[in-house]
Amino acid sequence: MLFGDKLKLLRKENNLTQEELAFKLNVSRQAITKWECNEGIPDIDNLKEISKLFNTTIDELVKEEKAINIEKIKKYIYTKELEINHTKHFDINISKINELNIRNNKEEIIKIELSSNEEEHLEELYKVSLDDVYNKLDIDIKSKKEIKDLSINLYIPEKYINDIELNSNIKYLNINNIELNKLEYDGELKYLNVINSKGIIVLNTSKSDIEATYDKLDGILEVNTINSVARVKLPEDNKYKTILKGIKNEFINTINTEESNNVIELNGLNSKLIIEHK
User: Fold this and answer.
1) Which of 18, 106, 225, 251 has the largest CB neighbor count within 10 A?
2) Buried-state track 95-121, b at ≥16 Cβ within 10 A, e below 16
């Protein structure tokens, strides 16, 4: 039995949905789907968490007819750090990547971690530059070539965040355990996953269909798009109100609570926003 089949079996035996397992592991629901479809294997840290959660061993999880080499599961990692001691505006530019994880860092350090299973010399393939001025921090991550499985972890001290402007082309954007004032995203984006986080998120994803999943909407989600369909997945008991702007736009399947402080706003042209209650 392959790893993905074992993970799916263990999840169902423990009466967990993919969303619930993703929340426990602090990963996206799409990551669980990918693993269960045998389209990839978690890194060693996630394997440790899975083994603890289901009271099994890593060997049992990855043991199969063609044995998996644990060393190959461990990703190549390149890390860069910068000390920070006061609030700044973050201006982040990243070339096309598979996944970006934004997390809170309790230390007074900006930490950028690049990881890949395919490429070893990430420090040679990617240029990571940090331009630090008093009230602004520019973070640029540019590549000489596209690495399909590249993931970036960006650890930011929550208390030093003002606003974040993020320009990129990302498949998965995961926001984990952090309180944001405002994050504004410009570019193509396929999946947004917000886990145990709050604040304002603005998505300027012109002509780009997107799926946004919240474990709980706590704040504002603003979607600005053209000729596209956005899907927002929320817990069934999550209260929110909707604001419709732009031209020829529409909400589908909304449960509006006017007194709520949580807001979902759709702006742009000829687009739909579908709300799914899970």
Assistant:
1) 225
2) bebbbbbbbbbeeeebbbbbbbbebee
**What is the token pair recorded at 209?**
């269909």
Note the pTM of the prediction, 2 decimals. Answer: 0.79
Task: Indicate if 97 and 160 belong to the same structural domain.
Answer: yes
Neighbours of 201 (CB within 10 A): 24
What b/e sequence results for 203-219 when a residue is b if at least 16 CB atoms lie within 10 Å of its CB, and e otherwise? bbbbebbbbbbbbbbbb
Q: Are residues 68 and 84 in the same domain?
A: no
Q: Under 8 Å CB-to-CB from 48, ≥6 apart: which residues? A: 58
The boundaries of the domain holding residue 37 are 3-73
Q: Judge contact between 229 and 250, C-beta under 8 A.
A: no
Residues 145 and 160 in one domain: yes
Q: Which pLDDT tens digit goes with each residue over 110-149?
A: 999 998 877 888 988 899 999 998 899 999 999 878 888 8
